[in-house]
Amino acid sequence: xxxLLEICGVTKVFGGLTAVDNVSFDVRRGSIxxxxxxxxAGKTTVFNLITGNYRCDRGEIVFDGQLLSRLPPHKIxxxxxxxxxQTIRLFQNMSVLENVLxxxxxxxxxGLLASMLHLPSExxxxxxxxxxxxxxxxxxxxxxxxxxxxxxxxxxNQRLLEIARALAxxxxxxxxxxxxxxxxxxxxxxxxxxxxxxxSRGLTIILIEHDMNLVMQxxxxxxxxxxGRKIAEGPPEEIQNNPKVIxxxxxxx
Amino acid sequence: xxxxMWGIIAFVAAMAAVPFCLNPYQVDVFNNIGLYALLAxxxxxxxxxxxMYNMGHAAFYAVGAYTAAFLNTQLGIGxxxxxPISGILAGLVGLVLARxxxxxxxxxxxxxxxxxxxxxxxxxxxxxxxxTGGPNGIFGIARPVFFGFKIAKPHEFFFLxxxxxxxxxxxxxxxxxxxxxxxxxxxxxxxxxxxxSGIDTARYQLLAFMLGAAWAGMAGCLYASxxxxxxxxxxNFWESVVIFIIVILGGSGNIAGVILGAFLxxxxxxxxxxxxxxxxxxxxxxxLAMMIMMVFRTEGILPPRPRVFKDIDRxxx
Amino acid sequence: MGMKRxxxxxxxxxxxxxxxxxxxxxxxxxxxLMAPVTGAWASEGEEMRNIVNLLAEELxxxxxxxxxxxxxxxxxxxxxxxxxxxxxxxxxxxxIVAVVGTYGSSVTEASQSIYDEASILQIATGSTSIxxxxxxxxxxxxxxxxxxxxxxxAAQTIQKMGFKKVAILHDNTSYAKGLADESQALxxxxxxxxxxxxxxxxxxxxxxxxxxxxxxxxxxxxxxxxYYPELGLILRQKKEINWTIPVVGGDATNxxxxxxxxxxxxxxxxxxxxxxxxxxxxxxxxxxxxxxxxDKYNGAVPGSIWAVLAGDAFLSITDAxxxxxxxxxxxxxxxxxxxxxxxxxxxxxxxxxxxxxxxxDVYRVYRVDAAGAFILQEQ
Amino acid sequence: xxxxxxxxxxxxxxxxxxxxIALGYTMxxxxxxxxNFAHGDLFALGAYLGLTLLTSLGLNSRVGPLAGLALLxxxxxGLVALAGALLERAAxxxxxxxxxxxxxxxxxxxxxxxxxxxxxxxxxxxxVYPKGILPAVAVNIFGLQVPLVRILVFVVSLLLMAALFxxxxxxxxxxxxxxxxxxxxxxxxxxINVDQVIMIVFLIGPGLGGVAGLLVGLxxxxxxxxxxxxxxxxxxxxxxxxxxxxxPGAMLGGLILGVIEALGAAYVSVAWKDAIxxxxxxxxxxxxxxxxxxxxxxxxx
Lengths: 253, 317, 379, 301
Fold this sequence. Notes:
heterotetramer, B: mainly alpha, two-stranded antiparallel ribbon, 4 strands, globular, C: alpha/beta, Rossmann fold, 2 domains, 7-stranded mixed beta sheet, 16% strand
């Protein structure tokens, strides 16, 4: 099976508004897929359907041969899909390191009793989790900020921290919702390098991004949404010249 | 050794001196403080750590106390042996009651817990299942016997109660610095992000509720053994409110703060006993003091401090 | 300030202030008084305090006992069991030989074992719950009658009036429920039907739902065992819906405020069972005392019989000290338990049986007249 | 059947009072998201102030019964509203930016404080209102004897609810209140004086509570210093039942709570009625987590 994720005819309705309308696309193992479209096209809703934050009204989502449809978000993380949020959702009052440990949680085992009694197995696990978390912080370049409060980080670094938190759960599929939002040019460059590095680690990535430069360079496959419908799909160079896409973007911008 | 450690040692030393320096009444005041500290520590898991508004904690306290009293008076089980049973039963009751309502947010959960507390109290008054003794409650609970040593006098209870407080503090503070404790922090800070990071928030909420309820149940068992008579009026809504106040005023989420809160809320009104002229205005001052303390220490007197990861590298190696 | 230091500081402060209570000289004979000076029953507690203080003053004016003065040590039980157990602990540390009090049964119960373990003689004053004296406590007595006495008198009264169907309403307090249960059993035994038996919630104001429900059960009389604030509202709301059923109540409704709450027209014809109210006590000694009481406390008259019974408890203790010429608790208890001993008290002769309960009939029947006065009925 | 309708009217009459108190509760909550536990005690304060105006100051005998009643309402409302605004300034405003539960504890402190202030001034004994201010006649509605006062209380609650609803929905100030309720910062940016709006809400909410206290005093004729606690809890329950922050919801919640209590007492057990009421509340909240009229909003992610 070459597809890690298959989205088949997914629909989501809020009240009377159809936010996602019969959308289907596949994500190949090891690829970087971009989900683009004007504001309000339903991109984030698709993400929320994949991660289990919303439930599909129709259609199904299959991850590595497993149906995701009715699973709660934390189970989906456990299966290997991790995400970042469009509006940054860090644990602002906690340290950078603790934020990363949150992602590590689902790979740990210590229960209530082991935690209360600090059993040797629990201590060992804690040490290893700490090591792992620091490693991921190193990877995104936030190692020296580990003891700071998350709220004290710059906007761009907060986005990186969200990625580190997602990585700590050892995902196979990484879902990035506007990772370059609020970043300056240099930071965006570095982000692009980071995304490429992630791919070389064997991760599959889906991202929503408005920075077309980044999208065109990083992604090998694009899916375009408008008013909740998929209007085009294909490699970047093809999408760039697709008349429907051009119209959709010009019509809005 | 830092100042914090010295502080803890000094506090423990001062507390250890209490039963040897004070008269039975004064020791009994400390016993009451200890019981409330236990209750507040248990509520702190639910309210302070997991961020679930619970204003019906007296219900679980009551379940524990009545379990112990029933087992002791009807089946003759030693009251200390009933301690774990009280805890388990109160925890299970907490689990069953919380299960359908755990998804409610904030104030809606608050009124539901108030309702649960009232339902439990009314059930006790109405002698539900014929085992609670109605408004009279249950009396004639035997004194606890600890390895052949009968505990009856206030200073004997002091060691039992504060020993249990010490054990609770040890267990709960190590819980705080663990996977479990962090999970509660995450879900209190941002429910959606916690779930999205792979934490089973519903499960942790239920576990926290169960743990808090179980500990309140054990406090109830100690209360029953100390009073030797229990009745529904000891577990009314006001009781839940007092425990709630102790947690928030002392410093929600901070173990030292919660214990300090118990000293203030339970101990201060006793101090007013000394000033007979003020005895009528005792609660008036109390209400005023509550407002003033909240206004000047808006996060409680001792708010929780962030975890320190100073020696990260040493921890790793 | 570090948080631990703050904790310590508070702890030290508390110890110092608490410690002040112990530095006393032990010259006079000290008698404890545990009374609800604050809380819901504060007015009861205040009268208890006034009466006991006055009696002690009178005794001291005559030279005290065994050549020593009497000192009354008051502790507030707040009308609540937990406060009461603290108050008892506190009294137990202050060198008292005996204690008077207290009012509520559950409150007294919380203190019983503490006094017993400290070997202090206790005479309760308003605690009528049966089981208090069923525990074989050597040093426990009470000057008030028990609920079964009251239940018996109430059942007899209802029977004498010729009613066949009764609605019983209590308020789920320990006292009211006990009285309701007791009377229900007796009434059923004598062939009277109990067509309604339920509890209201104390502190509420609207009892129309209960009245409507009761009415559909079609009783001939209502027997209410709760307290006067709720009864006043019930009488009033009963009149509002033009329901003319007679009502009989227990001694917790014996309070002049009842008529104020209900209104004279709604209260007229209400019967209640109670020990005699202070002004109806037919003893010379009592009249003289009530006059002194009025002189001392701005013309007030004690409204509550329970407070007068606190006076009787005090008199029993001082009598025991005088008769045994000692403050030894065993001697005193032995003396009081003796059936031939009789103390002349404010509510007549006081004697105790082996359980420590007061012997003799105390209950009377009262009726509220058109002017709102409580009229003692012929037996 | 007649008993059923009799119980229904009993329930509606009690519910009308719950609703009246719940209106003030829900209004304050709607704007500040604060459970104002002192609301019940402000209600009790209204009852006591009315008592003083009637007895010590003899308001009624000086200006005649009807004008006296009108003046009474005005004075009590005004004084309690003032107390409410003072309370907001002293005990709640400093806590507006702090954790929500801190304000709740401050409110609990205020509740104890007000309750004991009343106790210190008036004593712990029960006080009784003078009789005969409201007419004590019953009217016949479809064969049911209903005291006129009960109808009056019910109508007053309904009218106040309607007036409040119209005020919030139709007036400029009402719009400002709604804006502050939704987003204080945005409202401030739009040029709304947020402090002033909150102050006004704290005049209206407690003012309504004061009127309710006066009505309860006049109708039941008996006040004691702890009365606010029980009524406050009932009103809070009613407000939550209807969907807290929602004005018609408070009215609906109050009436439903009153009816549940009456029917629970009638057909199950008087002693269990409060437990039944809470049970129904819990069941309703499980089905509708934001109360009967509370709007459902999906979590924004």
